[in-house]
Design a protein that fits this description.
With about 230 residues, this protein is of the alpha/beta class. It has 2 domains: about 40 residues, no CATH class; about 190 residues, ATPase, nucleotide binding domain (Nucleotidyltransferase, domain 5). The strands form 2 sheets. Strands 5-4-3-6-7 form a 5-stranded mixed β-sheet, sandwiched between helices. A two-stranded antiparallel ribbon has the order 1-2.
Amino acid sequence: MPATLDARGRVTAWPTRPSWVGLDLAGVLRGLFPAAPVHCADDGDLAALAEAAAAGCEDLVYVGVGTGIGGGIVLGGRSVPGARRGSCELGHLIVNQDGALCDCGRRGCVQAEASGPATLRRAAAERGAAVGFEDLRAAYADGTPWALSALAHSCAALAAALVGVAELVRPAATVVGGGFAAGIPGLVEEVARRAGALARPGHPVAPVLPARLGGRSSLHGAVLAAAGPLTR
């Protein structure tokens, strides 16, 4: 789930679907599937678990770029901070205090600066006309200035977030996934280039890699969570 859940599986926040707040999601699922155990976890946390398993990497930071920004941290093969303590809200790291307004109510969150919709809005402002995903993809591949500018801003925000998290947890690798990122050839490489430029003496930046599982990382993570106590 991309929503924020409490330890009991109740939705406490979901800015894009406010009518879900207060829903006992775990209870509803248990009612639908009475013969099966039910566990709830954040989609970004699960994606991180899956990408870590696919890469054979026990210490990894994941960011998923789509309609929002999801994320997850895996240390020693286990999700951090762990399901009982909430999810890794990487998308709500503030990277620009004077930045765009986020759905959460703050300004300059990574999600407000670098998600798919945020990038398309910025591209439309640069172009002076509406921009769809395919328009952006084609224009970026052609080196069109408005597309390059819009994505440069998003990649810079993602790089800053990943490097900042890495200063705290020292991952062996960082992974960029999500449908939007996977659909823009060169986006991950640009994030990697910008992250590398933020390295400081004696502290090289962890490799920035594309997701191995594409847009299905979260689904693979859900299967892993169902098979064992990886998120607890």
